[in-house]
Design goal:
By secondary structure, this protein is mostly helical. 57% of the residues lie in helices and 1% in strands. Strands 1-2 form a two-stranded antiparallel sheet. Helix 6 crosses helix 18, helix 12 packs antiparallel against helix 15 and helix 18 packs antiparallel against helix 20. The longest helix is centred in the N-terminal third of the chain and has 27 residues.
Length: 447
């Protein structure tokens, strides 16, 4: 069984041999949170599509606002579990009180590896190597099967772990130098790519040794060779993300008039059909009489739904505590919902698939993103593999110093540097660069 004395560690990536006696008003995990908030990769999430195209006159969620809301829900879940551990197990580890901060930090970071243009971004990057113009690169260059799996199945979760821990050119060792507990709490799929029975994976081959080091330090159970169980706090991060996805997409769809007010209220109120919800429903009814603004009414119901889901997921974690600590718990916390909350969550998923994710505005941005990212990846991959070509020299000048590779780098490392650059772009920057290198819009300029 895993234990909290090991699972909660203030050791930092890249600073393993450094012992600090500096006293801070903030705890080590609060410093992790603040380090992410003030970082450029986190700020860039404000111009990365979550689901709907980024706002015109109506402001919907982007990756940044989504991550902040997930962090808020995650902090609540973390506080609930820390109180449970202190009460039930009398844990004397003072870091137990910091679980809320650790979970909130991991929630902030969970989408940092996602490329621009929403859900299609990962698919577009993978497509180039799997069946696009880059499909023959493996045969042309020295790329191992394991490394090729990373390229043909680009995974945002793995990319987040890379961003947090990799030493980019000119940057500090250990990436963000976050605590081991914070970086472990984002690894939703703790194994490498290429496993036939795994749809997703949690780290690239380039970060495999880093993850193994973190797992060993924290006492995370290795179930079989290079396949680990999750850090227990991953379940809380995942639940916070699932809750926000399930509920906030519905609210955005209402603001964009994809869902009517009646539909939206019915979808959300379906979570509150049990006898224990009677007082909550009464409060909602009173609030909706006092407040005439429809969006505010929807927000009131949404808040109540999130509150109930947080409580339910907390209870599921408690009930399955031993399974979680033994690495035997299957699926996520929201997968174990029951009663009306389970039915309502399933209905939210159904509505999202039928009316939200397939809405023309969503499909249009994903198609555009697919074309844009595929083009950028092709141009810059060719440039970095043939650097002496005249056009290549001009294109490589666009790549920031932090993403350049050392002389003698392998083809895998070179292609990763291109993926680092493109996946970190905002929607607007990617579109602007695509237009520039394809000569779009030049006719409108005066020379």
């Amino acid at each position: 069984m895993m234990n909290w004395d090991q699972l909660l560690s203030t050791k930092r990536t890249g600073q393993e041999d450094r012992v600090s006696d500096i006293k801070h008003q903030r705890t080590q995990f609060q410093r992790d949170y603040d380090r992410l908030i003030f970082s450029s990769p986190f700020r860039r999430l404000q111009d990365k599509t979550q689901v709907f195209p980024l706002p015109g006159s109506i402001f919907v969620h982007n990756r940044l606002t989504h991550s902040l809301e997930v962090a808020s829900v995650g902090r609540s879940l973390g506080h609930n579990i820390s109180e449970y551990l202190l009460h039930e197990y009398g844990e004397k580890n003072e870091l137990i009180n910091e679980i809320g901060s650790i979970v909130a930090t991991a929630c902030l970071a969970h989408d940092m590896g996602n490329p621009p243009f929403g859900h299609s971004g990962e698919t577009a990057l993978s497509h180039y190597f799997k069946s696009g113009e880059g499909k023959n690169l493996k045969a042309e260059y020295d790329i191992s099967d394991a490394q090729w799996n990373d390229l043909t199945d680009f995974e945002g979760n793995s990319n987040a772990f890379r961003i947090l821990t990799h030493q980019f050119n000119g940057r500090r060792k250990g990436g963000f130098s976050l605590t081991y507990s914070s970086v472990a709490s984002i690894v939703k799929y703790p194994y490498a790519s290429g496993l036939s029975d795994k749809k997703k994976y949690g780290f690239f081959q380039s970060e495999k040794q880093m993850f193994k080091k973190v797992a060993a330090e924290l006492g995370i159970i290795e179930k079989e060779l290079d396949v680990y169980c999750r850090h227990p706090l991953v379940y809380l991060v995942e639940a916070a993300d699932d809750i926000c996805y399930g509920v906030m997409d519905v609210e955005d769809a209402h603001k964009l008039k994809i869902l009517s007010t009646e539909e939206t209220k019915n979808i959300l109120m379906a979570f509150l059909k049990e006898p224990e919800d009677a007082s909550t429903c009464q409060k909602i009814e009173t609030a909706c009489i006092e407040v005439s603004d429809i969006n505010e009414q929807i927000a009131t119901i949404r808040a109540a739904v999130i509150g109930k889901l947080v409580n339910r997921c907390t209870q599921i974690f408690k009930e399955n505590y031993d399974l979680i600590m033994n690495g035997e718990f299957e699926k996520g916390l929201t997968d174990h919902l029951s009663g009306c909350t389970k039915d309502a969550m399933k209905y939210c998923e159904k509505i999202s698939l039928e009316k939200i994710y397939r809405h023309p505005s969503v499909v249009e941005i994903e198609i555009s993103g697919f074309k844009i990212l595929g083009s950028l990846l092709h141009e810059f991959s060719q440039a970095i593999l043939t650097p002496e070509d005249t056009l290549s020299k001009m294109l490589l000048a666009f790549i920031p110093e932090q993403f350049t590779v050392a002389e003698g780098a392998t083809t895998y490392q070179k292609l990763q540097s291109v993926l680092d650059y493109i996946s970190g772009m905002t929607d607007i920057y990617a579109l602007d660069l695509y237009r520039k290198i394809n000569g779009i819009g030049l006719a409108d300029k005066r020379f």
